[in-house]
Automatic annotation (TrEMBL):
It comes from the Eukaryota. The gene is 20216691. InterPro entries: Cent_Immune-Sig_Mod, FHA_dom, SMAD_FHA_dom_sf. GO terms for cellular component: centrosome; endoplasmic reticulum membrane; mitochondrial membrane; sarcolemma. It is found in: Cell membrane, Sarcolemma; Cytoplasm, Cytoskeleton, Microtubule organizing center, Centrosome; Endoplasmic reticulum membrane; Mitochondrion membrane. It comes from Helobdella robusta. The keyword Transmembrane applies. This is Sarcolemmal membrane-associated protein. Residues 27-82 form the FHA domain. Homodimer. Interacts with myosin. Interacts with SIKE1 and both associate with the STRIPAK core complex composed of PP2A catalytic and scaffolding subunits, the striatins (PP2A regulatory subunits), the striatin-associated proteins MOB4, STRIP1 and STRIP2, PDCD10 and members of the STE20 kinases, such as STK24 and STK26. Interacts (via FHA domain) with STK3 (when phosphorylated); the interaction associates STK3 with the STRIPAK complex. Keywords: Cell membrane, Coiled coil, Cytoplasm, Cytoskeleton, Endoplasmic reticulum, Membrane, Mitochondrion, Phosphoprotein, Transmembrane, Transmembrane helix. Its main location: membrane. Belongs to the SLMAP family. Associates with the striatin-interacting phosphatase and kinase (STRIPAK) core complex, forming the extended (SIKE1:SLMAP)STRIPAK complex. The (SIKE1:SLMAP)STRIPAK complex dephosphorylates STK3 leading to the inhibition of Hippo signaling and the control of cell growth. May play a role during myoblast fusion. The keyword Isomerase does not apply.
Length: 335
């Protein structure tokens, strides 16, 4: 028969089914992931406060050991933490009836949800099926039982304190909500009272106006009031007709101004088109002038070259033919 460890849900633990693990090889305790799912034969739990590799349990030379493997929220044996956060603990010998706690309760502030930790009572069986307890390894069994009972009571008291703290936090949050509601109620009451005062003032004002109207109606005879109403209506019609005529005149002037503006815009567009056309013509003429200038420069250079050649030929003729030179000289003299 293999060496086994049995974990049973205890106290305010995150709920889970009893786990019966074989310790022929070290057993990993941790959070459920895709590659490792919870079963009745392992110590994998679907609990958010556990680390993926939270702790390790094994059997060696007739003894059982538990070690925290750098978990975030810690491992506890009989309410004693094995190591600080994110530090690996030294192996801790464990026995049956020990209370194991993996992680701590975590309150999620955004949703006011508490995620519970794993709390379990431990039962260890050797290869012969015997339960391994402190009493079986110690002569003073009575003191061990008393200590065991005291640790159970102490742990239960701690759980009660944690529940009380949690309830206190809930009460504080509810008290805050109540205070906010009271404040909102006070503000609403003050606003309602102010509205009531304003309503009373308005009613008193209306009553005063009604009294003044009744006094005026008594002082003025019916015929004069009717005549005044007729006069006011005639004035109203007169002012309305004047306003309509003025409005028609303004509208006519506006229409006229819009027409003139359209004509001016049309003329401006035509002038802009003419300017652009003249600009194009000017550019074309400038281009032609530049071409003619270049052509003139070329012909002028050709003319200079021809004159130079004529001078050279003339000098050669004068040197080679004395008769022609004399004849030319005589012709100049005669002239």
């Amino acid at each position: 028969m293999p060496v086994e460890a049995i974990l049973t849900c205890w106290g305010n633990s995150h709920p889970f089914q009893e786990r019966r693990m074989s310790l022929s090889e070290p057993a990993k305790i941790g959070r459920s992931v895709a590659q490792s799912r919870p079963t009745s034969s392992n110590a994998i739990f679907d609990c958010k406060v556990l680390s993926r590799n939270h702790a390790l349990m094994w059997h060696d030379n007739g003894k059982f050991y538990l070690q925290d493997t750098k978990s975030s929220n810690g491992t506890f044996v009989n309410n004693q933490r094995l190591s600080k956060g994110a530090e690996e603990s030294s192996p801790k010998e464990i026995f049956s009836n020990d209370i194991l706690q993996f992680g701590v309760d975590v309150v999620e502030n955004s949703r006011k949800v508490t995620h519970s930790c794993i709390i379990a009572t431990l039962k260890l069986l050797d290869s012969d099926g015997r339960e391994i307890t402190k009493s079986s390894l110690s002569n003073d069994s009575s003191s061990v039982v008393v200590n065991n009972v005291q640790s159970h009571e102490f742990y239960q008291l701690l759980q009660y304190l944690q529940e009380a703290l949690h309830r206190e936090q809930l009460l504080e949050s509810k008290l805050t909500v109540v205070q906010q509601l009271v404040q909102a109620t006070q503000e609403s009451t003050e606003n309602n009272w102010q509205n009531l005062v304003n309503e009373e003032k308005l009613l008193s004002r209306l009553e005063t106006l009604e009294k003044q109207l009744s006094i005026c109606s008594k002082l003025q005879p019916d015929g004069s009031l009717q005549q005044e109403l007729i006069t006011l209506q005639n004035d109203k019609f007169h002012y309305e007709s004047l306003a309509k005529n003025s409005l028609k005149k303004v509208i006519g002037e506006k229409v006229e101004a819009v027409k003139k503006l359209n004509d001016v815009e049309r003329t401006l567009n035509n002038k802009e088109e003419e300017c652009s056309h003249l600009k194009d013509v000017s550019q074309l003429i400038q281009t032609e002038l530049n071409a003619l200038s270049e052509k003139f420069q070329d012909q002028f250079k050709d003319l200079q070259n021809v004159q130079q050649q004529l001078q050279v030929y003339f000098s050669l003729i004068m040197k080679s033919c004395p008769k022609f030179r004399n004849c030319l000289f005589n012709s100049r003299w005669l002239v």
